[in-house]
């Protein structure tokens, strides 16, 4: 992952192991999640369509 990539939930830099990225289930826009937000099930909102998930 490139250091400039940011978590969709908390805006942290995605430079650590355990970070992930996946397509939004609704619009296919890329969702990026840091390890902490994934582990704590922090909600995210797609910046493109507004879809939210854990």
Largest sheet: 2 strands, antiparallel
Per DSSP E runs of 2 or more residues, the count of β-strands stands at: 4
Shape: globular
Query: Using only CA atoms, what is the Rg?
Result: 10 Å
Helix and strand string, N-terminal first?
EEHEE
Can you tell me the number of structural domains? 1
Mean pLDDT: 90
Q: Total helix count?
A: 1
DSSP strand content? 15-25%
Question: Which percent range fits the helix content?
Answer: under 10%
Sequence of strands across the biggest β-sheet: 1-2
Structural class: mainly beta
Low-confidence stretches: none
Measure the end-to-end span. 22 Å
Explain this structure.
This protein is mostly beta strands. It has one domain. It is 9% helix and 22% strand. The strands form two sheets. The chain has a two-stranded antiparallel sheet with strand order 1-2. Strands 3-4 form a two-stranded antiparallel ribbon. Strand 3 and strand 4 form a beta hairpin. The longest helix has 5 residues. It is globular. The N and C termini lie far apart (22 Å).
What's the layout of helices and strands?
Layout: E1 20-23, E2 30-33, H1 35-39, E3 44-45, E4 52-53
Antiparallel strand pairs: 1-2, 3-4
Q: Which key phrases capture this entry?
A:
two-stranded antiparallel ribbon; mainly beta; 54 residues
Task: Please sum up the structure shown.
The chain has 54 residues and is mainly beta. It has one helix at residues 35-39, and strands spanning 20-23, 30-33, 44-45, 52-53.
């Amino acid at each position: 992952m490139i250091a400039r990539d940011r978590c969709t939930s908390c805006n942290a830099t995605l430079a650590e192991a355990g970070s992930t990225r996946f397509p939004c289930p609704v619009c296919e826009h890329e969702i990026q999640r840091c390890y902490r937000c994934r582990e704590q099930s922090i909600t995210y909102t797609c910046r493109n369509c507004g879809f939210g998930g854990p």
